[in-house]
Specification:
Blueprint: H1 18-35, E1 39-41, H2 53-77, E2 81-84, H3 101-111, E3 116-121, H4 122-128, H5 132-139, E4 143-148, H6 165-175, E5 181-183, H7 191-194, H8 196-204
Parallel strand pairs: 1-2, 2-3, 3-4, 4-5
Length: about 220
């Protein structure tokens, strides 16, 4: 993430911070190797303070592409995947550079490396664009990880909000998604209590605790 005390949130697209980006990436690879995690979120970073987004967009994209190619080469040596996550700039972070799956897909196409994928957080995607069914279908070949949270409060999937997660989960299954779904939400209370939504979802699908089939038992 860079120097968070200085207001940084990633470095990959920040001009002039290439050396720090490479140092941070090497540290991330070291940690990922130690815990057996094959995916690393390569954070784009924020538009520098005092600059206009449109004025620096070209330079930031050039920096981003250069750093992503470097990252892809390094990660390929470790058999790891780099992930790009669009973060909404309407609510969560007004200065974050990478905001939509469309922007991320365009960057990925320009970089052209198979071990770089889209980390699609449906919370951010809904806020920026909505149209989740079509976006999931369109960008499915690029997706390397999914994250979820209810909109707008960013709580558990079964909390009041805009998203119909049972439908979304079934859509992901129908598309053939076999990866993890990250619970990127803030629990309203206790973490374990908040996971009650998952037990309820399993039961609605005829599954037992842990996602195993009752019929198989």
């Amino acid at each position: 993430p860079g120097d968070q005390e200085a207001g940084e949130l990633g470095l990959a697209a920040v001009p002039g911070r290439q050396a720090a980006f490479r140092q941070g990436l090497e540290a991330a690879v070291h940690y990922a190797r130690a815990v057996g995690c094959p995916r690393i979120h390569v954070m784009a970073g924020r538009v520098p303070l005092g600059t206009d987004r449109a004025a620096v967009a070209g330079e930031m994209e050039t920096t981003f592409i250069e750093n992503l190619r470097y990252a892809a080469d390094l990660l390929s040596q470790e058999d790891m995947i780099g992930l790009l996550e669009p973060i909404n700039n309407r609510i969560t972070d007004p200065r974050y550079y990478l905001n939509t799956p469309h922007q991320a897909a365009a960057i990925l196409e320009k970089v052209g490396r198979p071990n770089l994928k889209l980390q699609l957080d449906l919370f951010h995607c809904q806020i920026m664009d909505g149209n989740l069914s079509r976006n999931l279908e369109t960008y499915f070949p690029l997706i390397g990880h999914i994250q979820i949270a209810q909109v707008p409060a960013r709580h558990e999937p079964d909390s009041p909000g805009e998203l119909n997660f049972p439908y979304i989960f079934e859509l992901l299954e129908s598309l053939g998604y076999t990866g993890y779904v990250g619970c990127e939400y803030a629990p309203k209370g206790d973490t374990l209590e908040g996971l009650g939504w998952l037990r309820s979802y399993w039961e609605s699908r005829g599954l037992q605790h842990g996602g195993t089939s009752k019929a198989a038992k």
